[in-house]
Queue: 4 jobs
Job 1
Amino acid sequence: MNKLLSLLIILSILGCKDKEHSKNNKEVSKTIDVLKKVKGQDLKSSNAEKRISEIATSFHRWYIKNTNDLTTNVSTGIEIIKGKDGKCVVDYQPYFNQLRKLNTISEKFIESEKQRTKDCAAYIEKMDWEQYETSEGYDLEEYCSFFYYQYWTQSQDSFDGLDVFEISHENNIWEIKIQFYFMDGNKKHYSTGNGSIPIIKVEEELNKYLITEINWVEI
């Protein structure tokens, strides 16, 4: 009888621990901050993952720095200039030159930027320069919505930084998820913005790892 009672007590204690463990798991899943810390422990254990993380985050670190500080005069997107015939011209080169200077960006990604902005470029280059200069509010939103927010953070707000919180790889193709944050004193506040985060693909090209794609995934 005593043995049976002891067994019941042990099972009851284990059941309470399981419930508490389940509760804790739910709490962990609610915050990107905690998830990032858990994944961060894994990243420290591998020099390869650390290096890949540095490559993957290079673009957004550059982007946040130069969208926060406009005095750098660094192009972080396509530019619209006046053509000789009085029409608008879309100039990709200042932006693409900056990307190439990072030495972490594949030509695949640069080509995808042309594709992403091609409808806007086609629309803009039919406009007279004066019409473009006098456009107001959201006049160009239908074709060029990314003019009105920071596309690569999906926000009109400025972030202070970013962290890697998940990294995986298969057959020399790496995928890295990052999260943006604001600083409040010494505390980071992570933001999901519009409910999605970047997933960055890094692939090996000519014995060098480069960013080939950046897509958005819902969380």
Job 2
Amino acid sequence: MSPAIEPLENRVLLSVTPAQLQADAQALVRASSSSTAALNAVRSAEFGLIKGITGSLRKNGGIIGAVVGKTLATTLTGAGKTGYGHIQTSQKTLSTSARVTAKRSLAQGKALLKNSNDTTLQANVQDLINQLNATVPDALASLQTVLADAGNAIQSAVTAIVAVLPDITSSLGSVAQTIIQKSQAFDDALAAIPTAAAQLAADLSSITAQGAATVTHAYVGPAPVK
């Protein structure tokens, strides 16, 4: 057989390249890192606001600040510490899941591109597809629940303070605005994670489909002489 003529089984046209797979895996890792950095920025701003409120409560609350204010300040500070403790734990779970799955997807996907008939690789890649489509989104949903619970606890504590001293937050408007902006950046960073995970899952699904579509018995060349 001429070197220019080979079985179709050795000429599989790949719709997903190793470079694309790597780029999409890196996109998921970056999204994970960005979300962690964005959370840290929100946490810093939030605790700045909490510190400002509790400090103002003690300074300007008069008798109320001395007697009731200490309890209110302790409640707010505790809500912040507890809430963000839970948030950071949940964020770490999400980030770790995304990073580890991305790295494994890259390694197993590249390996399957080289050996599409390896049943162990096929099973591993299918498991990774399931993780990208389910485990990572589930971790995000869990984080969003924790965020809501923590936010409600902090807001409840702030509301109790404002009820006692309505003017306490008037000087903290710029800090509150900063929190809103950083929270939006955090939301945007989180939104990028399932998008990146879905793209990587699509890559792996395409790779498995390519392997299944490989023609294993075909001959390209002149008709055999009878």
Job 3
Amino acid sequence: MTACLPTQPEIFNQFRLKTERREKIALEIAKRRKEMLRIAGEIAELSAEDAEIQVTVAELLDQLDANGAIKPVLLDFDSDGKTIRWKGKSVQLGWNPRNIVKVLYFATNRRATITGLGKAIWGDQLCNHKTIKATISKLNRALKKTSFPYKIKSVKSKKQVVSVEDFLSKKVRSVTIRCPIVGYKLVARK
């Protein structure tokens, strides 16, 4: 039995088919390389984000005590009447803002009523609520800039729901009355 040798056109046709297959494979390899490079870039970005998250979590865990509560940060109120120091850092405030922080820091549960703050800071129980609110708002902005470990939050009274009858339609509906601020508290910044 003799084998039949391929003709020249058949050889060229086989060569052309193999070349086309090699080109398709090369294109597929190039696409996959491009995809692998994209994935490698995403992995690098995620690794950087993961490292930042790990550092943040470690810092936050360091702030917790054995029971999981936030450790209080020791504040030192300098005798100059304006400076507060903590963990090697400091902030200089005006007389009243510094004293607001001091009153809240040493208060029971780190809370004080508006009348208590008015009396302690301005010497007047009937101090204008707007004055206290504006001072605390400015104080919180100043403290945030210095990475102060605490912030001041308002304490509101409980929500009140009142039934109101519409004069024209005589329908009764429930209305939630806006809760007034009754005091302020010093809380750990997260």
Job 4
Amino acid sequence: MGIMIKKALYVALSASLVIISVFAFSACSILSDAAELQEYDMSGDSVKTVNAVVGEREVTGVETGVTNGVINKQYTYESNSVFDDLMAYTQYLRENGWNVTQDYDLNVTPGNAQLAKESADTDKILVLSIAYEDSKYAIKITKGDGTLTSN
């Protein structure tokens, strides 16, 4: 009976290791694909990625979801040049129709920035939020109901 339990335990452990390996490989593939991504696809809208503007950066996290009809995607990047990356990226966004909706100072870390733009879809907006530290930053894009008004 002891041999049967050991064999069953060995089979269960082996199966668990295979499943963990598959998930780990899948996660590596997702992060690798995200590092090469040139546009964030926001269901009818596309937004140039930070990689498209400043070159390939290491992606350490990807989160996507839909909550109450609001689409959101978040990409976390590691970089030795956070200030330069975000200066170039936010400048690119501002030059391409994005409006600053939260003042920011890239010299102050950690920090946050937020920009928004009308969606291609009527009565929808895109909001791009950036949270940054010394060696990493997260870019979160949401698409939901709303309009932008100028002051």
